[in-house]
Amino acid sequence: MKYFVMYNEIGLKGKNRPFFENKLVENIEKQTGMRARRIMGRILVEGNNPKKLKYVFGVSHYAKIIVCDQDIEKIGKKVLSEMKKMKGKTMKVFSSRADKDIPKTSIQISREIGEILFNAGYKGNMKNPDISIFVEFIGGKTYIYFEKIKGPGGLPVGSSGKVVSLLSGGIDSPVSTWYAMKRGCEVICLHVHAFKENKKAEKSKIKDILKNISAYCPSIKCYFIPYYIYQSNVMGVPEKFELALFRRYLFKLAEKICEKEGAKAIYTGESLGQVASQTLESIYAVNESVKTPIMRPLIGFDKQEIICTAKYIDTYNLSITQYKDCCSIIARHPATKPKLERVLEIEKTVPMEKIILNSLYEASSIQIP
Ligand code: ATP
Ligand code: MG
Question: With 60 as the cut, is the pLDDT of residue 11 above it?
Answer without folding.
Answer: no
